[in-house]
């Protein structure tokens, strides 16, 4: 078997889907990568190297899983679809016998423990839950030091956006709590089966030390939610919902060195943290 044939192409994906009688569902974001070059590009951009343990959310038919195994990583794969989860070890055994794979059949949003202490997260995430899944894994698994995810293009741009940008919002500020994010290239919709009706983008992150305690994070995230629920309003108004009144919000903002007339889109995550701390 050549190296090329150890990854899944359109023919292998078609055969596996037929074998499992898979009708990909939109609800589970089931768009499978059918292009080996794209898989290799994702794995290269992720920086994952031999000997590393990687958690992959939503391995599907195994396209990316085989790419990660190809560079010598160990993979812990979390898949919600029972048929896909059951087939994955069989596929891996066929294409890369003996490769280190652990499959967990579960909803990734409910996972609070992982075997093997993965230090990286690499995934082609289901579109509709990409941000909550990312935040969940960053919250529960501090050993994940870096990673790369493929998400819907607009979502990826939002995650990596910086203050002042029109697309800067709650996902951008919350993601910045955990790390530094940058986009790492667009991916054509043609590399998927079925072809989705949106474009995708790669987003890479490096974790940084969390700027505050867990209770400060919770307080900061509730301020972020309030600020962006009414993003056009000044913070003294939008934050009054969680801080009691607009007078109290103004006092807290001033104590934190933030203008009460500012809007959420102008603030960094550290500004939000200062507001949370100003009440302590
Ligand atoms: C975009 S596909 C990616 C499949 C594969 N990694 C690839 O690149 O071809 C998303 C995968 O996530 C799975 N999935 C959807 N929701 C999930 C959840 N809550 N927890 C775990 N897996 C999920 C789907 O069944 C599907 O296999």
UniProtKB/TrEMBL annotation:
Ribosomal RNA adenine methylase transferase N-terminal domain residues: 38-209
Pfam families found in the cross-reference section: RrnaAD
Keyword NADP: no
Binding residues for S-adenosyl-L-methionine: 31, 33, 58, 79, 107, 124
Subcellular localization: Cytoplasm
HAMAP family: 16SrRNA_methyltr_A
Name this protein carries in UniProt: Ribosomal RNA small subunit methyltransferase A
Organism the protein comes from: Lacisediminihabitans profunda
Gene name of the record: rsmA
């Amino acid at each position: 078997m050549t190296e090329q044939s150890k990854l899944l192409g359109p023919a292998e994906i078609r055969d596996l889907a037929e074998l499992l009688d898979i009708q990909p569902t939109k609800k589970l974001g089931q768009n499978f990568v059918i292009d080996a070059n794209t898989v290799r590009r994702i794995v290269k951009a992720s920086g994952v190297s031999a000997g590393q343990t990687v958690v992959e959310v939503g391995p599907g038919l195994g396209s990316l899983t085989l790419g990660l195994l190809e560079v010598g990583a160990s993979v812990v794969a979390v898949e919600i679809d029972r048929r896909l989860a059951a087939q994955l070890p069989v596929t891996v055994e066929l294409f890369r016998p003996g490769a280190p794979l652990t499959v967990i059949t579960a909803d990734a949003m409910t996972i609070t423990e992982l075997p093997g202490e993965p230090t990286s997260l690499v995934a082609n995430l289901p579109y509709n839950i990409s941000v909550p899944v990312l935040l969940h894994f960053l919250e529960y698994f501090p050993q994940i030091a870096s990673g790369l995810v493929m998400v819907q293009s607009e979502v990826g741009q939002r995650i990596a956006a910086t203050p002042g940008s029109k697309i800067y919002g709650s996902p951008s500020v919350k993601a910045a709590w955990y790390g530094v994010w940058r986009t790492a290239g667009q991916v054509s919709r043609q590399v998927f089966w079925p072809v989705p009706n949106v474009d995708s983008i790669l987003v890479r992150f490096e974790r940084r030390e969390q700027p505050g305690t867990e209770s400060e994070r919770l307080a900061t995230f509730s301020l972020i939610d309030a600020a962006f629920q009414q993003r056009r309003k000044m913070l003294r108004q939008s934050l009054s919902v969680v801080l009691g009144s607009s007078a109290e919000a103004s006092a807290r903002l001033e104590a934190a060195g933030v203008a009460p007339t500012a809007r959420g889109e102008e603030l960094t995550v550290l500004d939000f943290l200062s507001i949370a701390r100003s009440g302590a």
